[in-house]
Amino acid sequence: MKGLHHLDLNVSDPVRSAPFYDRVLRHMGFTRVIEAASGEDGFDWIAPREGGRFSIGVVRARDSSKTHDRYAPGLHHLALHAKSREDVDRLYSLLLKIDAEILDPPAEYPQYGPGYYAVFFLDPDGLKLEYVVESEQPWDSSLKSQDLQMEPKIRTARISDFDILIKLIEEYYQYDSLDFDPRRIGAGLWKLLQDGNLGCAWIAEQGAEVAGYVLLTFNYDLEFGGYEGIITDLFLREKFRGCGIGRLMIDRVEAHCRADGISTIELQVEIENRTAHSFYRKLGFSQLPRLVMSRRIPAND
């Protein structure tokens, strides 16, 4: 068996997707060879390989209203071979320049194999892509299945994740005995997911399961020289607690704030939640000598 001959991917708009794939696939050694009239129907890229060729095409989807769902039946993600670790790093730099959405930056992922080094990212329709190089070490067939469990992933939430997030938020509010108003909270969440100036949301996943979420918003405070990050929500489902996922979520928030020049993160913790107090102190948070107060502003009659 010679392996794959060609692969066609459905996209919502070939004209929109073409510049992305052109930059990414050219870096991988592909050349664009087929272009339909005005690019309305699709594009093809081809790369030579031993004993033949391999091509990747993008074609217009019949239903362009949906984003890709890698947990539905069908393709989960597409992984392509890199020449070296430096090659992976160079693609990562290119992805940052074209503002591609990064799921996981270049790193070793030993759970996938010896010397496994890869970057994971999304195309404009949310299809997960991977660029990977692997060492020539023989695979240890004695590894147990539990050793191959996927590491937790913290990914940026999109509009298409609204239903997942609103369910998680409801679970969090029930856990902390907060009043959950789906209309009010849903409207606020929708705005947050649409406008990056308001903040950002991330979803934690363990394999195919959703583990939790974290929400970050911004506050402008002269005490901190400008903007500070406010973690409004951080929630993990019970079975995923104590596994290090919460720390990964805080790390992702911190990296996002650092990239935006924000030097302070604040959050609120229920007074009775001693476990959360201990968790955040271990991560470097300290209690401020202040009392949090709020007042609802009544609507005009």
User: Would you identify the regions where 5 or more consecutive residues have pLDDT less than 50?
Assistant: 139-148
Helix/strand-derived category reads alpha+beta
Shape summary: elongated
The CATH class of the largest domain is identified as Alpha Beta
Give the overall pLDDT as a whole number.
86
Looking across the biggest beta sheet, what order are the strands in? 9-10-11-12-13
CATH topology of the largest domain: Aminopeptidase
**Tally of domains:** 3
Number of helices: 6
Distance between the termini: 74 Å
Q: What proportion strand?
A: 25-35%
In terms of quaternary structure, the protein is single chain
Describe the structure.
The chain is an alpha+beta fold and 301 residues long. The protein has helices at residues 14-27, 85-97, 162-175, 182-194, 245-259, 274-282; strands spanning 6-11, 31-35, 42-49, 52-60, 77-81, 101-108, 117-122, 128-133, 153-156, 199-206, 209-221, 226-236, 265-267. 26% of the residues lie in helices and 31% in strands. Strands 9-10-11-12-13 form a five-stranded mixed beta sheet, with helices on both faces. It is elongated.
Question: What keyword list fits this structure?
Answer:
301 residues; alpha+beta; 2,3-Dihydroxybiphenyl 1,2-Dioxygenase, domain 1; 3 domains; 6 helices; elongated
SSE diagram, text form:
Layout: E1 6-11, H1 14-27, E2 31-35, E3 42-49, E4 52-60, E5 77-81, H2 85-97, E6 101-108, E7 117-122, E8 128-133, E9 153-156, H3 162-175, H4 182-194, E10 199-206, E11 209-221, E12 226-236, H5 245-259, E13 265-267, H6 274-282
Parallel strand pairs: 1-4, 5-8, 12-13
Antiparallel strand pairs: 2-3, 3-4, 6-7, 7-8, 9-10, 10-11, 11-12
